[in-house]
């Protein structure tokens, strides 16, 4: 089977290297050679393992290629190329979650019965697409909770374990190559949201794009939040959450306070993990490297092996007729919350806050006042019982207008 690699960067070059180095085991497993014949890049590559061209048409017009592997990144350009390939009835494999977050259903329609592999688009080496699409296909998926971004998990782990400040750890992550020079895509939750949307397509057939769902990042988390979490037996993780209730599904990505006892709370550093609860199997947890050249190439090549065996299952998201789920509006999300407020330290402030909470039907679960930061202001921490997102947002809106509030209130959800 002849393969063209569109994009010869971190993942593309690792795919080529692994196809060459693991040639024998790959052939033994699928009964044929999988040969990377040509790659595409913008720049000239010296010492590449296969010929690399800068001319896209040279590759796209080749008739002898069986599978095109898109590893360029971006949205518009790869989408245009893949559309063109599918129209020519070519098989495609991609690791491109950003493109799939926006265009997956158009691609599904075009792909029809062609093989379209995207295992590497979510959680790197963890074969989570196959788990959901095949292994758990008899289950109603009750919920999915994922640590889907290694950069954010690295930062939160270091803040929690070493008491380091957010900016300090981010700088260290950049020095170590775990974070990009512009880290916003990772730390503001967009990368995790793209992956969550792909999983939600398989589990529920949800057609949402990133703009439709709740996305918050980790840049607002302070050492005080870490202090509170430690005091109350929580750990903070950037979590992608999908939850089904009757025919509605809530999808959200945000920093989350999790009980330290939960299995997923123990996933530290750059590692990824996905917990899936099904109505038949209960909870299951999948753990592994979420990024990196070879780890991601492992997932890309597993799709290639499936194509070689004639086993890459269609339809693309594993369901043949429309599923009955729709997206729950963000304001109807119902969960527990954590609030950090920096307030003027004077008589009556606490009672005003609790009054506002009760006016919004919010009931307090726990409360802590941190020893004073300075002479005139105190930091107050609250956790609430279950309440609606719209209630907590109303409360924050009202609090922001109060003279006794020093800095904008900070809120986090609790699972
Ligand atoms: N890196 C990971 O750990 C990881 C994990 C999971 C998924 N992914 C996904 O895998 C894909 C590739 O990621 P990566 O980290 O390998 O990216 P990368 O290192 O930036 O490599 C991208 C490659 O594509 C080439 N390219 C980009 N735009 C092009 C264009 N318009 N024409 C021709 N060539 C073009 C680049 O050429 P030049 O070399 O000349 O710049 C480069 O060789 C992305 O969709 C990413 O989200 C990556």
From TrEMBL:
For the ligand (NADPH), the binding residues are: 97
A GO BP annotation: threonine biosynthetic process
Q: What class of enzyme is it?
A: oxidoreductase
Q: In which pathway does it act?
A: Amino-acid biosynthesis; L-methionine biosynthesis via de novo pathway; L-homoserine from L-aspartate: step 3/3; Amino-acid biosynthesis; L-threonine biosynthesis; L-threonine from L-aspartate: step 3/5
Residues annotated as binding L-homoserine are: 180
Q: Which reactions are catalysed by this chain?
A: L-homoserine + NADP(+) = L-aspartate 4-semialdehyde + NADPH + H(+)
Gene3D superfamilies listed in its UniProt record: 3.30.70.260, Dihydrodipicolinate Reductase, domain 2, NAD(P)-binding Rossmann-like Domain
The residues listed in the UniProt record as binding NADP(+), with positions renumbered to this chain, are 6-13
Q: Which UniProt keywords apply?
A: Amino-acid biosynthesis, Methionine biosynthesis, NADP, Oxidoreductase, Threonine biosynthesis
Q: Where is the ACT domain?
A: 338-413
Q: Output the Gene Ontology terms for molecular function.
A: homoserine dehydrogenase activity; NADP binding
Instruction: Give the Enzyme Commission number.
Output: 1.1.1.3
For this protein, the record's Pfam families field holds: ACT, Homoserine_dh, NAD_binding_3
Q: Any idea which residues are catalytic in this one?
A: 195 (proton donor)
Q: Which family does the UniProt entry place this protein in?
A: Belongs to the homoserine dehydrogenase family.
Sorted alphabetically, which NCBIfam families does this protein's record hold?
PRK06349.1
PANTHER family annotated for this entry? HOMOSERINE DEHYDROGENASE
The entry's protein name is Homoserine dehydrogenase
* UniProt source species: Campylobacter cuniculorum DSM 23162 = LMG 24588
| Gene name tied to this protein | hom
């Amino acid at each position: 089977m002849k393969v063209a690699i569109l994009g010869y960067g971190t993942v593309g070059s690792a795919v080529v290297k692994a196809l060459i180095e693991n040639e024998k085991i790959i052939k033994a497993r699928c009964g044929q050679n999988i040969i990377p014949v040509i790659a595409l890049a913008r720049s000239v590559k010296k010492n590449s393992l296969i010929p690399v061209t800068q001319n896209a048409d040279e590759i796209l017009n080749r008739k002898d290629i069986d599978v095109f592997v898109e590893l360029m990144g971006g949205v518009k350009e790869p989408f245009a190329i893949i559309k063109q390939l599918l129209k020519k009835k070519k098989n495609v494999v991609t690791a491109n979650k950003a493109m799939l977050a926006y265009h997956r259903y158009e691609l599904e329609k075009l792909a029809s019965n062609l093989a379209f592999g995207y295992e590497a688009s979510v959680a790197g080496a963890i074969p989570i697409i196959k788990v959901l699409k095949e292994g758990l296909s008899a289950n109603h998926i009750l919920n999915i909770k994922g640590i889907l971004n290694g950069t954010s998990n690295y930062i939160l782990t270091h803040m929690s374990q070493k008491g380091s400040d957010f900016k300090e750890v981010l700088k260290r992550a950049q020095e170590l190559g775990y974070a990009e020079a512009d880290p916003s895509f990772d730390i503001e939750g967009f990368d995790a949201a793209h992956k969550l949307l792909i999983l939600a397509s398989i589990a529920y057939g949800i057609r949402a794009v990133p703009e439709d769902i709740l996305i918050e990042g980790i840049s607002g988390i302070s050492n005080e939040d870490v202090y509170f979490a430690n005091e109350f037996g929580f750990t903070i993780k950037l979590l992608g959450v999908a939850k089904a209730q009757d025919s509605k599904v809530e999808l959200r990505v945000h920093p989350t306070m999790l009980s330290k006892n939960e299995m997923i709370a123990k996933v530290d550093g750059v590692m990824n993990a996905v917990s899936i609860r099904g109505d038949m199997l209960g909870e299951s947890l999948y753990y592994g490297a979420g990024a990196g050249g070879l780890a991601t190439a492992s997932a890309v090549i597993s799709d290639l092996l499936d194509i070689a065996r004639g086993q890459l299952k269609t339809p693309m998201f594993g369901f043949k007729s429309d599923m009955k789920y729709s997206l729950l509006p963000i304001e109807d999300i119902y969960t527990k919350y954590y609030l950090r407020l920096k307030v003027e330290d004077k008589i009556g402030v606490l009672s005003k806050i609790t009054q506002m909470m009760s006016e919004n039907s919010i009931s307090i679960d726990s409360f802590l006042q941190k020893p004073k930061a300075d002479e005139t202001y105190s930091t107050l921490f609250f956790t609430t019982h279950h309440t609606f997102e719209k209630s907590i947002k109303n409360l924050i809106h009202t609090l922001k207008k109060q003279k006794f509030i020093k800095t904008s209130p900070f809120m986090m959800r609790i699972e």
